[in-house]
């Protein structure tokens, strides 16, 4: 089954509108919780008047920070903890100041508007420059200079190497702030019955959430049940610990009734955390061939009004991936995480790695431009060769697994018809009426398969492993329980394919369950492209054990040696004896008959396995983009987008293609459309999808996808992960194409998003 | 995304709708396709106390040729305008503009009267009706009156309807066989126009040109029209596209970019005539 494009088991329910999302779940006596969000970017709270709100029909109560003073703070970096609601001051527009609970959402929304919060404005620092300015004032109390973290990632000083290099150049690149904007916003329903709560929530790691809730409330974990039902996209933004994960259960406990919170789209745009938002200062030294000799990088990250424990250190991952697919002998990297009066930032599809890929791919193009060489040739001069794998990067512990970067680039150039495109580009340049043509390349590598435990512990997880329980039913069908919590990836399908191969059971006879801590043994979760490389291997491990036991039971039934059995159709046969057969269903039933099993055989056909990856995996590939630019309006149209991806073993080519499409779409969105913006006063300018430009199907090109399969030796399946590859590869493929189209004007860079107006201005200023 | 409370009545006839509107005074808003009003209510930009649903008044959904005028009922959907043979033959500019609105779902629900009465300065149909020198028919407590399109749009999302008046019909001079152009520039395929241009060749020569997205209301590009009438070449005339406009300067586009787009789009529209 591995490698076959079977349709998704998930789709029958989802496509007919019969999925079960948090907002679809109803409990008797349900109450609704709505936030009062800060309307100020930076201000002291001088008073909260909830009298009118409390008096409105249907309103159960209004609570502010002081009402939760007894609860331990939200999970964070030690010393930077904070409560659930703004206490005494607000740090950004959208920060929750109070919660209202009412009999229905309408009453709750009306009451939230009736809560009057009095503010005493403080100076607003909406940018990192303002927050770091000498006359800035502290935003988050424990951080006097608004500097949450200053990290020297490598001890290397490359000053001498840069000075010795035949050429060097500097650049400042901007990786703008983006919003995850999943189809389904954040939602929580908590029902505290008896000794502990059941919490249905749109989360990516239910077991982790269970641990955090149990700890906050001083409960043993078995008393807390967290369920992630169908989740409509997450893209990392549902991995942060939003206050509603604790407020809903706490209010349910206090009120003795279930409490539901479902974010509106407008709230999502200011309340749920954003991603990216890096300023990248780069200096690079290189030789006449374009070989990069040394790289010096300083990243300045806008982490928003209060530090998120993941957001604060995310640039470590950016730093680790700065070398891209290239043999760069020396890299010096440091970063600063800066607090500003904006919504906090944390994980967003790729979480730190797309920023690195963007940086190095833009730098390679700048080097090529500086030398007047073709960007494809400069890439070839720098690529790590397949014989050098596994490749130890300049960063300790960061070792790339098997891949063939040059083959990916060659395949891409071939599929693009690269030489022909360059000729066409020259032809169009000569015709002032023809739209400009640009070609952009992006040879990329990123991290997938998040684990192993020593790394993942640093993000607060119990481990970096994943777990699977494979249980054959007495009729030979199979239930798999897995510790990941997918939100669109298609784990029911892909993991069933893996189990089917090991067990010899038809795909249709396997069900995969996940997302419920009362059902699933233990789990880490779905993030960091870990589904196939980690969970896939856990399922495989457990299935191997079950298959092995089934063979032993079959051998007993056939009175043969297990080694003498061969698999046939739906069961086993004694080698060379066509009549001596037994079906898997017969074997499965036998496994539950103690008197008919060999002495000492445990009942049942079941195994729980935990797979700990040896290391991270490194999905890679080469993407190319061809754009056309309207000379009059500056509009960029993508004519072609070609992907060559190496995610190792491809489990299901159709869902793999879906991951590429979605990732590339978000990457193109970052390149051309999306930017979360604030004015100088910290007021959000993109608080709805009218202003935040998520592109639709008509705004995106068809994708041409190709795969190279280089198995990773880091795990038995040989899989590397794919969920974040498209979003990692695409932004710079597009931007490199846009800059390429404008290069004849002397244009060196166009900041993302390359909107028609921005491109027009760049053209206008250059000519 | 949670609207404030409101009450709802469904009108069974135009008379009933007029009664309800005058009974509730300024608190009532007519609801047609709901594509502008309902989102505005969910964002609490609009908080009408009463919605008078006129969406099922089939009597207001029609396209009729009436001598040299085409009469379009206010509840005619964008989709109908896009496909109606009378519109295609007599006022094809209207069909061209309707075709550029949103997606098929939006065009099936949205109505010409709703769009015009909402008076968004970037509305596609407003540009077309203005370039066609349309006349809007309103019925109210004081009877029926005609309002020329040039006088209908009085400000950003404001119109010339008096309290209790309902827009019931749009009358357009037929323009069979005369050339027209509709140029729209939007950020995303389904977005409102950043800037748009509707151009219609006139019977006695000359061109009527309307701009959307270039100020608080859709406007006629009179400077371009006059320059063309005076025999200026199209390229020269197009330079005057933004003359007298006060284009918005916002997160979607700067005023200077809008000014530039107006010139580009007028140039393209004139070339397409």
Automatic annotation (TrEMBL), chain A:
InterPro entries: Ald_Oxase/Xan_DH_a/b, Ald_Oxase/Xan_DH_a/b_sf, Ald_Oxase/xanthine_DH-like, AldOxase/xan_DH_MoCoBD1, AldOxase/xan_DH_MoCoBD2, AldOxase/xan_DH_Mopterin-bd_sf. Keywords: Molybdenum, Oxidoreductase. SUPFAM superfamilies: CO dehydrogenase molybdoprotein N-domain-like (SSF54665), Molybdenum cofactor-binding domain (SSF56003). The keyword Repeat does not apply. It comes from the Bacteria. The keyword Magnesium does not apply. SMART domains: Ald_Xan_dh_C. Residues 16-123 form the Aldehyde oxidase/xanthine dehydrogenase a/b hammerhead domain. Signal peptide: none annotated. This is Xanthine dehydrogenase family protein molybdopterin-binding subunit.
TrEMBL record, chain B:
InterPro entries: CO_DH_flav_C (IPR005107), Diverse_Substr_Oxidored (IPR051312), FAD-bd_PCMH (IPR016166), Mopterin_DH_FAD-bd (IPR002346). Residues 1-177 form the FAD-binding PCMH-type domain. Coiled coil: none annotated. PROSITE patterns: FAD_PCMH. The keyword Oxidoreductase applies. The keyword Membrane does not apply. Pfam families: CO_deh_flav_C, FAD_binding_5. Keywords: FAD, Flavoprotein, Oxidoreductase. This is FAD binding domain-containing protein.
